[in-house]
Amino acid sequence: MEEEASVAPSSSLPPAEAPAEEAQVTTEQGSTNIIEALDDDCLITSPILKAVPGPDLSSTLLLLGSKYNALLKTHQALRSDREVLRKKCAEVCTPRYEILKKKYTDEREERKRLYNEIIELKGNIRVFCRCRPLSSEEIAKGYSCVVDFDPAQDMELQITCSDSSKKQFKFDHVFGPKDDQDAVFAETLPIVKSVLDGYNVCIFAYGQTGAGKTFTMEGTPENRGVNYRTLEELFRISDQRSSTTRYEFYFSMLEVYNEKIRDLLAGTSDQLLKRLDIKQAADGTQDVPGLVEAQVSSIDEVWEILKNGGRNRSVGSTSANELSSRSHSLVRVTIRSENFVDGQKNRSKLWLVDLAGSERVGKVEVEGERLRESQFINKSLSALGDVISSLASKHPHIPYRNSKLTHLLQSSLGGDCKTLMFAQISPSSADLGETVCSLNFASRVRGIENGPVRKLTDPSESFKLKQMAEKLLQEEKEIAKLNESLQLMHLKYASRENVYKALQEKIRDAEQSCRSYQQKVRDLENQLADEKKANKDTAKFSKPPLAPMKQRPALRRINNMLPPPGPQTVKITNSMADKENDLIANRTSGRDLVKPLNKARRISLATSIRNVPMQNKRASIAVVQDVAERSQALPGVRQWNHITGTTQLRHRRSSLSTFMSLTATPLEAASPEIKGKFSAFASNSKHKTPPLVQALWKSRIPGIASPRKRLRLMSSPATSKNLNAAQSSANKLCFSVQKRVIVGSPAPTRPAMNPGSMIYNQLLRDKDLIGRFGTAQRVLCKNRRQSVI
Ligand SMILES: Nc1ncnc2c1ncn2[C@@H]1O[C@H](COP(=O)(O)OP(=O)(O)OP(=O)(O)O)[C@@H](O)[C@H]1O
Asked: pLDDT digit string (tens) for 276-294?
C-alpha cells in the first residue's frame, strides 16, 4: 500500500550514440567537409559545455555522444583518404619518378662526359695571352708597341724584335689591348663550369711586373676581374641547379711570400704571421691545416673577403710597378656538392692565382729585401716551369714539391684537372725582352698534353668536333627539359607530401578530440552517477521520521490500496522517535490537547495524478476552497506557523494553487457528533491516530457536518450536485492528513532544509501542480509514500 508503483521517470540516459542521419551526412560530405566540420567541433573547449547545468547532463551526454561518433567517422574517413593517396602515389608517381630519375642521371653523366671531352679536345691546359695597352707613362717616354695583333687570327700574335725580326706565337686565345674584361671572362667560362662538374680547376696569371696580372684576376670595382666573375657565375649556376643539386662554397685566401704560406684571411697579425704547412690529406689531396675557410653564399660576401684579403697582401714598390705584388696570391674555392636525385657527392677545388712578377733580377733594379723577394719569386716560377715541363714530357716524376706554389697546386695541375694560364704581356718596346721570355714560357705550357688532348690540325677532327658540339647542344636542351620535368615532379611530390602531412595532422587532431570526448563522456557519466547517488541519499535523509505503523492507521484508510502482508518496519532515529512519542504521549494524556502542532517534518506529494478513491473509510478529508472563495472567507493571508505549529494555509498570490486555510480546531470545540465519532474511531483503531490530528479537520462547506458525511455526499451523485452548486466556480482539492500535514505553500523565505532540501522544493513544485489541477494527487518520493493530498 505504501509502495506505489507510480515512480516518476528517472533521468536514466540512453547510450551515447550519434543519430544515424547525422553520421550518414558526415560520412558523405567527403574529406574537405569533414575537416571543416572538425573545426566546428569545439565542444571540448566550448564554454557552453562548461555551463551545462546538472539536470541537462543527459542531453549533453547525448550531444557529446553524437559528436564523438561523428569524430570517429571523420577519423576513419581521413585514414582511408590517406591510404588512397598513398596508394595512388605509389602506383603513379613513383614509377614515373624513377624513370625520370634514371633518364636524368644518364643525361647528366652524358652531358658531363661530352663537355669534358670538348674541354679536353681544346686541351686540359689552356693558355690565353693578354696584352695590356700602353700606359700613358710609356707613351710619354716614347716607347712603341712591339706586339702585332692580327684581327683575323685571334689565336696568334707577332712580336717585333729589336732587329725588326718577327716572332710568332700561338695560344688558345689572344686578347689585345682593346679586349675588355667581359671578353676575357667569356672565354674563361667553360673551364670555370667544369669545377661544378667535380673537376679541379686552376687559373693563374703569369707575366712580368706591371703586365696586368692583378688587373686580369682581380680587376677594379669598375672592371671586375676573373675572380669576381668566376664566383658570380658559380653562384648563378648553383642557384640554377638548386632543385637537383646543393652546392656549398668555402673561400680561402693565402699567399706564398718568400716560400712561406700566409693566411690572408687571418684576423690578427699573430695569425697572419703564423707558419702554415702543406699536408697531404687522407684523400691524397694537399691541404693547409689551420687555413681559414669562410663559407660564402653570395658574391657580395666574396667581394668583401677579397678586399680584406687584398689589404694583407705583400706588396712593394719596384722600378717596374709602384705597387708590385711581391708574392703569389692564391684564392682557393672549395666546392662541395650533393645531387638530390642520385645522391652523388662531389668535392672540387678552384684555384685563382695571381703570380708574382716574373721579371729577371738583373733587369729590375732591386736590392736587399726586394732582391731576396725576387729570388724567391723566380725560384717558385722556375719550379712551376719544371712541373709543367715534366707534365709535358710525361715524366714519371713530377717535381711538385720543389716549391710551395707547385706543392699547393699539385692536385690542380695535371691529370684530368683543368688549367688555364693567362700569359700577361706588356706591349712596350721597353719590356720586349721580358715579353719574349713570358711568351716562351707560355708556349711551353701550352705544349703540354694532359690526357687525350689533341691538336686541331686534322679537318676530319674538326668536323667531328663540330658534330659533337651540335650533339652536345641538343643534349643540353634535352637535359634542360628533363630538369624542368623533374622540378615539376618535385613540386608535385612536395605538394602531395604537404597534403599527406596535413591529413596526418588532422588525424592526430581528430584522435586527440576523440580522446577528449571520451574523457568528457566518462566525466559526465561519473557526474551523473554521483548526482543520482546524491539524490538517493538526499531522499533517504530527507524522509521525515515515520511513526510506527501502528500509529498510522489513517494512511491505510485513506487509500483503497491493500497494505503489504506482514508487519511494516519503519526505521526512525531515536531522536525522532522520542520526539514523536513525547508529542503523542502528551496529547493522549490530554495534557496539551490545545497546544498547536509542532512544525511539520514530513510530507510527500504524488506526481501521478489520479483521483483519491473516495471510500467510506477515512474521516480526515478536507475540501479546500479556491482562492476566490477563500479570499472572501479569509481576507488575510495566512500561512503555516512553524514556530507555533498552527495548521494554517497560506494563500499564494500569484498562483492558482491556492488553498483554503484550515483553522486548527480543538477537539473540545468540535461538535459532539464529530467528537464522538473521532473518539470511537480512536479507541477502536489499532493504529491510534492522535485525536488532535483527527480533530483538526473541520468542514468549511456548509451542510457537511462531518468528514464521513461529506464523503458520502461526495460519493453520491446527488451530493455531488449539491457540491457543484455550492462550489461551482471553485476547484476542489481533497487531501488527507496523516499526522501533521502541511497544506499550502510554506513561507517562501523558508530556507532549504538539509539534507532534504531538494525534496522540499520538489514538494513546492508539486503543490503548485496540484493547485493547478485542482484534484487529489498522490505523491511518492522514490519508494516511500509519505502522505497523500
Ligand atoms: N688590360 C688592361 N687594360 C687597361 N689597363 C690595364 C690592363 N692591364 C693592366 N692595366 C693597368 O696596368 C697597371 C699594372 O697592372 P697590374 O698591377 O695588374 O700589373 P701586375 O702584373 O699585377 O703587376 P705586379 O706583378 O707588380 O703586381 C695597372 O694600373 C692596371 O690598371
From this structure: 888 887 777 788 888 888 8
